[in-house]
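User: Hello! My lab partner asked me to get a predicted holo structure for this protein. The small molecule is flavin mononucleotide, SMILES included with the sequence. Please write out the structure tokens.
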Amino acid sequence: MKIGNIELKNNLILAPMAGVTDVGFRSLAINYGADYAVCEMVSAKALKYKNKKTEDLLITANNESIKVAQIFGSDPKIMAQIVKSKYLSKFDIIDINMGCPAPKIVKNGEGSALMRNVDLAFNIISECVKATTKPVTVKFRAGWNDNINAVEFAKMCEKAGASAITIHARTREQFYSGFADLNLIKQVKNAVKIPVIGNGDVVDINSYKKMLATGVDAVMVGRGALGRPEIFSELLNKNVLDNKLNDIKQHINILRQYYPEVFVVKHMRKHILWYLKGYRNSTQLKTEIVKEKNLDNVVLMLENFFENLNKKEEV
Ligand SMILES: Cc1cc2nc3c(=O)[nH]c(=O)nc-3n(C[C@H](O)[C@H](O)[C@H](O)COP(=O)(O)O)c2cc1C
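Assistant: Hello! Below are the structure tokens for the protein in complex with flavin mononucleotide.
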């Protein structure tokens, strides 16, 4: 499928996840077969005020041949200004977040709050589209609480000039509980001509097939990739070698190139807990790693753990 002029090979995408889809993790997902991996959402306003931490979220890896940034905000002028700013100049696709359910976002009329302000959402999208020749895409939910308006919203996005849409078929009220409504995704797909990316609850081949059965053009995976970037190879039916230790080390090494060690050691803790999920006898290691302040020690602890694991397997 194509987003504007950009061709995808595998029709698989790593979802944007704030605090999670850092440059290292995105790089791994792409190595395993994701066409692209969306950067964590960034506030257009924060970029306007040159917030350094926000700028740092837009660091990209060498293997990101399709670079995608996601912005959020509620002011069409600021959003358009950021779309054409130097901050987004290296990106190939600009995604607009109209799905975030977090109270601190929706109280400002941003994220999923825009699903109950369709006129403003239209203005934001069309101003952003006018500001660039790059494809602009929109990610949204089933609707705001009881008002399930994804179909109408999808048509509005198309009319405003969006090149593709992603639907995470949960309502704002659901946050991440319950299940994504695949029937609604099917209705959205049938309502528009632009490509539709289906999102929600894809964690294995079975759930992937169910998502594909809705007719979507591509599939976006979020939580199913936590600690398992190899999920993209699995969905593509490719043989996956168990490279867990290498993956974790690569993840750390990429982050180390760009961020201070104190940040990396703290930030990697949650990733390492996800990476180690399902490994028997990893409880003690996990307890020690979340306390360790030195990154080299963390790597040594992981190397020891995996070395012992291999020895046990050989016996
Ligand atoms: C920790 C976390 C952070 C997220 N941050 C974002 C974000 O920055 N932008 C966004 O559009 N969605 C965000 N999401 C939503 C995901 O992109 C995705 O829509 C959702 O998790 C459903 O897909 P899944 O069932 O495959 O996880 C986040 C989800 C999680 C769990």
